[in-house]
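Q&A log
Question type: sequence-to-structure
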Amino acid sequence: MKPVKLSGIEACVFDAYGTLFDVASAARGAQDALGDGWQALSDLWRLKQLQYTWLRGLAGHHVDFWQVTGDALDFAMATQKLQDPALRERLMQLYLSLSAYPEVLPTLQRLKAGGMKLAILSNGTPAMLAAAVSNAGLDGLFDAVLSVEEVGVYKPHPSVYRLAPARLDVAVEHACFLSSNGWDAYSAKAIGYRVLWCNRFAQAPERIPATPDAEIADLSVLPEILQRA
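Response status: OK
Response body:
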């Protein structure tokens, strides 16, 4: 997919983890303790984190994302035979201060200056999202920071995606959803968003219903793609 011009966009809704915030930066920040195994731990931590949200959603066993993140880390550390409570606590605290990708702040500032409504829509808890936004210096840029805790189920449940248009008071077809997670981008498109898949990691297209409007490599091109009129 090649970038296109999207017209009639009144709001831009961002996934948080992997889209605005670099989830690998937590384990990368503990390389001194993890050594060469940091990337493998990071990848497995993220994989199990997502799997646990889906499994809990299907089973109706909801707990918040902080517990899910801890449970996923426990699995990843056990797999790597790491028994170190202090390291676990350090990694969890690092997850609260994830780095934003380099283009995020200037892109959001340009969109905000152009009058675009901005929101985060995330699996994260309100406290986790507040910490990430503050650490990245993004305070004051968002009209809403929305957590799945408002509906008690994780993405890709349709009730999650409906939160942002309702809160921002825009029709879903006038909202653009951004995610680096293919499954997330495709799922948002299925309920009516205009969608740009921020395919940071050169993933293959998903084989699930609906297709994003376009694919981009990072967020820096957004001001040129999104048009309010």
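Response note: The longest strand covers residues 117-122.
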